[in-house]
Design goal:
Length: 118
């Protein structure tokens, strides 16, 4: 999915995406894709996806009748597993330099900086 281009006015304010514009068409296509996808979001413990079968529905905040999918709920077992993984990773991260440990955070910041916001 391509990021949306947001136009900036002369005053530096971001303008709304105009009806009929290519940006609006991409936005509507992205919404249609989200609405047509039944999301099944697992827990992520370390690099392992965990599906517990204990699920909560994902619904749009503005129209609760629209269900987007489901997310798996964790319990004590999943929390203990996540704490174990985090503790093990602490040992690995302790050996990294400040520059090395900052890399994933700097990458995330760059992705957010490049993502256009309306």
């Amino acid at each position: 999915m391509m990021p949306l281009a947001v136009q900036e006015t002369e005053a530096g304010h971001k303008s709304a995406i105009q009806t009929g514009s290519p940006e609006r068409a991409r936005l509507e296509a992205a919404f249609a894709e989200v609405l047509s996808t039944a999301y099944d979001l697992p827990l992520l413990v370390g690099s392992e996806e965990v599906r517990t079968g204990r699920i909560f529905e994902i619904r749009t905040p503005h129209e609760q009748a629209i269900e987007l999918g489901q997310v798996h709920a964790g319990g004590a077992i999943e929390v203990e597993a996540a704490v174990k993984v985090a503790t093990q990773m602490t040992r690995t991260w302790a050996w990294l330099s400040l520059q090395e440990s900052a890399v994933p955070f700097l990458r995330a910041a760059e992705l957010f900086r490049r993502w256009p916001m309306a």
